[in-house]
Amino acid sequence: MNAIEISPRDDAVAAGAAVHLSGLRKHYGDVHAVDGVDLTIAPGEVVALLGPNGAGKSTTVDLILGLTRPDAGRVSVFGKAPSDAIAHGTVGAMLQGGALLDDATVGEMVAMVASLHRKPMPVAEALRRAGVEELAGRRGNKLSGGQKQRVRFAVALVSDPDLLLLDEPTAAMDVGSRREFWHSMQAFTSTGRTVLFATHYLEEAEEFADRVVLMRAGRIVADGSVAQVRALAGGRTLRAVVPGITEAAVADLPGVTEYQIRGAQIAVSSSDSDKTLRALLEAFPTAHDIEIAAIGLEGAFLSLTADEESER
Ligand SMILES: Nc1ncnc2c1ncn2[C@@H]1O[C@H](COP(=O)(O)OP(=O)(O)OP(=O)(O)O)[C@@H](O)[C@H]1O
């Protein structure tokens, strides 16, 4: 690892944080998988890590777990190096395709992991919380993809960790399992635990995270509440039917960042829809069928992660 200077302030922030990353970099040959990430997660936060394929989410999770060594920068978990935090049972993880044993039963696997920790929760409780009590006697090679995910969740929970790291936890789950999973997760987070989860499901981020961190090409491009990240992407869309409208008149409206015109129908994205609307009605008082909608997280995601391919 390259030497980096750690300021006393950085030390103090790291000591009080659940996760503290500063100047973090990981390159694979020419690929800048993680390219200068600074991130501080406070105890009790539930944070969604979003980004398109290859954005660096899994690499970031691996770095926090100490599974990969950074080329530069610093990782600390509750003020400790990742390996120490894991040895203390402070961190639980559910990774994409994390290995399960084919010949052991679900109950045996969870018990085995529990035996590695100093203060595990009872195995039956981990099985219950993860919704796999009924699968306790089933062998690893007899589980469906979604069931395997829930067993991985039981394994992650059994150390009774303060921080859970989840890499696309619901990827193989059907709608019902997904709902149950988040229900269990909310029971877990309501006790003040910290969760960082990588996901491709924007609605999961919208519904379950306090904070959204959006990555693109190894960097954080947005970080804030769902509402803040949406706002970053240009606010709202305004649609209306505007007799006599011209392209120049739309382009001149205040706050407009993008627009489309089809006949008398206009659809504009605006950073200040109140201002746009007032100006529109002043210039075109006969405008009608006006609709204003907040841009969804999906809109923000697409706009903030656009052009990724051309920049890699
Ligand atoms: N072990 C590795 N060797 C070489 N390149 C790697 C390795 N791990 C990751 N990469 C590359 O680093 C970049 C970031 O990958 P990463 O898996 O962190 O992205 P991600 O955001 O988790 O993507 P996805 O959503 O597809 O899981 C990608 O270009 C990937 O190909």
Automatic annotation (TrEMBL):
Topology term for the membrane: Peripheral membrane protein
SMART domains in the cross-refs: AAA
Compartments in which it is found: Cell membrane
Signal peptide start and end residues: none
GO CC, any one term: plasma membrane
Domain ABC transporter: 19-242
Coiled-coil residue windows: none
Organism: Amycolatopsis taiwanensis
Protein's UniProt name: ABC transporter ATP-binding protein
InterPro entries found in the cross-reference section: AAA+_ATPase, ABC_transporter-like_ATP-bd, ABC_transporter-like_CS, ABC_transporter_ATP-binding, P-loop_NTPase
UniProt GO BP: response to antibiotic
Claim: ATP-binding is one of the keywords in the record: yes
